[in-house]
Structure formats: C-alpha cells, structure tokens
Amino acid sequence: MFYEINRPAFARLKPPLPKICRFIPYLELKKEVEQIGNRIRYMRQEFISEIAESCEPDYT
Length: 60
Prior knowledge:
The protein is mostly helical. It has a domain at 24-54. It is built from five helices and two strands. The chain has helices at residues 2-5, 8-11, 17-20, 26-36, 47-51, and strands spanning 22-23, 53-54. Strands 1-2 form a two-stranded antiparallel sheet.
C-alpha cells in the first residue's frame, strides 16, 4: 500500500498524495477500541490521529 501511494504519478498531485494520506493499522485500532469499550461513542475522531502513520517514505 505504501508503495502504491508513493508512486510518481501520485507524488505529482497538488497536494502530493503521500503528504495527505495516513495509514491506520487495523490491529492498533482494534486494540484501542477494545480498551475504550463502550466509551468509544464519546471519543473525538482525533484519537485516530494518534494511531495513524504517515505514508511518506522514510529515507533514513
């Protein structure tokens, strides 16, 4: 998935797709939802930002 998002065609878009796309690992999301339980309905959507990972390539 990271490879596809970082293809040159998508990198040329304004804004570049890798800069705006985030990956939400299913297992991490599932773990968080299980911990929160029924209180999930009171959570703000921003908690997903803490789980989401950048799709930009890591050249380090």
